[in-house]
């Protein structure tokens, strides 16, 4: 990067946000750095775009949970406009299938939450130059998912569920409430709700009813 670049960090997790801020502060080639505010979160893609344009932001660093930018896989005009206007580095902790789908929407640089700081630095440098950068872990995911698509037509999201999530999915499909599942598995009600949210995201379902339909239609759960 020959000239300094203004960087805006829009990351929901506080520890990651401040770690990225600290990392960027240590790079002499990075220019002014700003952290996302609560207002950015509320205004979503439109708010981020307005801010980046008004402040001359050259690189946007975002995670997959910030401001609901990537909650829907389908086309989002506001998100597409943002990604076309500001080179964006996405740091994702989502499933392999999710990463495979989202890499198509115009992300310049894509990392996982397991990426070392050196990769994060390289990704920001690349984005500032308009050069695509996918971390080695992301490249491996894209290769594996592409192979599954070639062989089976569509990667199966359920393969990304943990053993515990599969167990909870089975109980949800049987019509059990979160409280009943918590009692049976000796877990807290909060933990069960967290698992359910993760399952919905991994299987791209929006409700318990849709989750049950998915489970039955894909043969994950047998009807009794």
What would your notes on this structure say?
It is a single chain. The protein has a six-stranded parallel sheet, with helices on both faces. It folds into two domains: 5-145, 3-Layer(aba) Sandwich (Rossmann fold); 157-217, Orthogonal Bundle (Arc Repressor Mutant, subunit A), CATH 1.10.10.10. The protein has helices spanning 14-25, 38-55, 77-85, 96-102, 117-128, 136-152, 163-173, 178-185, 189-202, 208-217; strands at 5-10, 30-35, 59-63, 88-92, 109-112, 133-134. The termini are far apart. With 224 residues, the protein is α/β, with parallel strands linked by helices. Helix 7 (163-173) packs across helix 9 (189-202) and helix 7 (163-173) packs across helix 10. Strand 5 (109-112), helix 5 (117-128) and strand 6 (133-134) form a beta-alpha-beta unit. It is built from ten helices and six strands, in the order βαβαβαβαβαβααααα.
């Amino acid at each position: 990067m020959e000239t300094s670049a203004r960087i805006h960090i829009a990351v929901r997790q506080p520890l990651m946000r401040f770690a990225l801020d600290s990392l960027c502060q240590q790079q002499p080639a990075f220019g002014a750095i700003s952290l996302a505010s609560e207002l950015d979160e509320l205004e979503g893609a439109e708010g981020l775009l307005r801010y980046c344009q008004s402040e001359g932001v050259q690189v946007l660093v975002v995670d997959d949970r910030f401001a609901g930018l990537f909650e829907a896989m389908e086309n989002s005009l506001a998100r597409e406009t943002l990604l076309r206007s500001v080179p964006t580095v996405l740091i994702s902790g989502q499933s392999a299938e999710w990463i495979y789908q989202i890499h198509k929407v115009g992300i310049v640089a894509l990392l996982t939450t397991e990426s070392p700081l050196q990769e994060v630095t390289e990704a920001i440098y690349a984005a500032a130059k308009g050069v695509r950068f996918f971390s080695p872990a992301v490249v491996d995911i894209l290769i594996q998912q592409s192979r599954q698509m070639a062989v089976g037509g569509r990667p199966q999201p359920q393969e990304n569920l943990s053993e515990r999530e599969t167990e909870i999915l089975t109980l949800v499909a049987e019509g059990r409430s979160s409280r009943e599942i918590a009692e049976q598995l000796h877990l807290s009600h909060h933990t069960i709700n967290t698992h359910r949210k993760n399952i919905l995201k991994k299987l791209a379902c929006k409700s318990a009813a849709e989750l049950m339909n998915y489970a039955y239609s894909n043969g994950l759960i047998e009807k009794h």
